[in-house]
Automatic annotation (TrEMBL):
The lineage of its organism: Eukaryota, Metazoa, Ecdysozoa, Arthropoda, Hexapoda. One of its GO terms (molecular function) is oxidoreductase activity, acting on paired donors, with incorporation or reduction of molecular oxygen. Gene3D superfamilies: Cytochrome P450. This is Cytochrome P450. Belongs to the cytochrome P450 family. It comes from the Eukaryota. PANTHER family: CYTOCHROME P450, CYTOCHROME P450 6A16, ISOFORM B-RELATED. It is found in: Endoplasmic reticulum membrane; Microsome membrane. Keywords: Endoplasmic reticulum, Heme, Iron, Membrane, Metal-binding, Microsome, Monooxygenase, Oxidoreductase, Transmembrane, Transmembrane helix. Its cofactor is heme.
Length: 501
């Protein structure tokens, strides 16, 4: 009995210490006079029932904006600055990038070698890798990959035409994910994934494994927001099965190409070159060294991950809005038909560049539905905010709520309206550059932006030339977003009626 009593008192004492620690941490923003929402023990400002629902968290915080350049939040016990002032955001992403170059994302190179990719790494490792990879995403390299994307789009057209013989109502979220999986599988791994013919093909299956939302995944995402805690627990991000699959595929691909002297001018060729040859930093005239096999696999993995999910999501939301706005859809279809005619009925690299209204539609889709709703940076040193007495202390995370900024009626009147004319050149130039953050900004913007745009343009041009899209009985109006997962997505897919023209 005495042992039980001692255990109870020890538990009470431990709980009291933890509670006191959190309460002390929860006074951080109040002591600094920063607008904030009162946190709750122990999750801070995160919702109990939907731990992964960061979009709603940012919505509540963004609505507190006033004269302060940011509002205060707490993710567990950690104070987080949620930026609301566009000039402050520009300083963080561009002007004072050197103090905010890190994302503070959890990486586990030991157990999860594929987690050590460009998006997650910080410091010298990120800088060296970015320098090595930047030349692989030039417009010239994109032009090399363009015919491959067109070939996959033609296979997509054939597969969709066959599907429509049995059903006119289709979940476009799934078929677009198959299309982008096949594109990325071909460009990043040189493999025919066949997702369009077989939705259960291995690459599509592993894509689902990574992105399928769940309560457990949402809880893990919260822990990953506290990298020191995640590292102490040695949490695995992707798991052994996913690591083994991608490491195996990359190893097999490299061995096959090097043994048979195969060159495809794709992303994998560029990574193999970086593995076999030193890279020169043109500025400092120093060698950056070669990539290891693990580094090659990590970059191929993130290219696959970011390339298939974000592009397919963007195309899905574009088709959804076009189905709801038939006048915009017909205007775009007319442009596509006109450009095809101008280029002898062929979809060429130059033809895609001529589709100006298509680019406006994609930009407005990204404005209304940014795939990644918020950007993250970490202060490397104490940082005094311009025209303010406030200081962002070293190690503090700064979150930039892209979704809320891109739905702010001060910058986009009637923000829920889908209006591609917001991205006419004169309209775009009249806005603050930080009002559009779907690809980030500054030196750490999305390195694959050109590829993502090209893939989305080709996919949409092919679809709209051959099909018309309408709402169906299953189409969610208005769309309801999934509260879990890191990518903006509808809850139950996106069903549309597709009519072959």
């Amino acid at each position: 009995m005495e042992l039980v009593t001692t255990a109870v008192w020890l538990f009470v004492a431990f709980f009291g210490i933890v509670y006191f620690y959190f309460q002390r941490k929860f006074s951080y923003w109040k002591n600094r006079g920063v607008p904030h929402i009162e946190p709750k023990f122990p999750v801070g400002n995160l919702p109990w029932k939907e731990l992964g629902n960061f979009r709603d968290v940012f919505e509540r915080l963004y609505n507190l904006r006033a004269e302060s350049p940011f509002v205060g939040a707490y993710f567990l016990a950690n104070p987080v600055a949620v930026a609301t002032d566009l000039d402050f955001i520009k300083d963080v992403l561009v002007k004072d990038f050197n103090n905010f170059h890190g994302r503070g994302v959890y990486v586990n190179e030991r157990d999860d070698p594929i987690s050590a990719h460009l998006f997650s790494l910080d410091g010298p490792k990120w800088k060296s890798l970015r320098m090595k990879l930047s030349p692989t995403f030039t417009s010239g390299k994109m032009k090399f990959m363009f015919p491959t994307i067109v070939d996959v789009s033609e296979q997509f057209n054939q597969a969709l035409s066959e599907m429509l013989q049995d059903h006119s109502e289709i979940d476009v979220k799934e078929i677009l994910a198959c299309f982008t999986t096949d594109v990325i599988g071909t460009c990043a791994f040189g493999l025919e994934c066949n997702s369009l013919k077989d939705p259960n093909a291995v690459f599509r299956a592993y894509g689902r494994k990574v992105f399928t939302p769940s309560k457990l995944r949402s809880i893990r995402l919260v822990f990953f927001r506290v990298p020191k805690l995640a590292a102490a627990l040695r949490l695995s991000i992707f798991g052994k099965e996913i690591n083994n699959f991608f490491m195996g595929i990359v190893n097999q691909t490299i061995e096959h190409r090097e043994k048979n002297n195969i060159k495809r001018n794709d992303f994998m060729d560029m990574l193999i070159d970086l593995k076999n040859n030193d890279t020169l930093d043109e500025g400092k005239k120093i060698k950056l060294g070669k990539l290891t096999l693990e580094q090659v696999a990590a970059q191929a993995f993130v290219f696959f991950l970011a390339g298939f999910e974000t592009s397919s999501t963007t195309m899905m939301f574009a088709l959804y809005e076009l189905a709801l706005n038939p006048d915009i859809q017909e205007k775009l279809r007319t442009e596509i038909d006109t450009v095809y005619g101008k280029h002898e009925g062929r979809l060429t690299y130059e033809a895609i560049k001529d589709m100006v209204y298509l680019d406006q539609v994609i930009n407005e889709t990204l404005r209304k539905y940014p795939p990644v709703p918020a950007l993250q940076r970490v202060a490397q040193d104490n940082y005094k905010i311009a025209n303010s007495k406030l200081v962002i202390e070293k190690g503090t995370t700064v979150m930039i709520p892209a979704y809320q900024i891109q739905h702010d009626e001060r910058y986009y009147p009637n923000p829920e309206k889908f209006d591609p004319d917001r991205f006419l050149p004169e309209a775009w130039k009249s806005r603050h550059p930080m009002t559009f953050l779907s690809f980030g900004d500054g030196p750490r913007n999305c390195i694959g932006m050109r590829f993502g745009r090209m893939q989305s343009r080709v996919g949409l041009a092919m679809l709209l030339k051959n099909y018309r899209f309408e709402p169906s009985e299953k189409t969610p109006i208005p769309v309801k977003f999934s509260p879990v997962g890191g990518i903006l997505a509808p809850i139950n897919g996106m069903h549309l009626k597709i009519i072959k023209t």
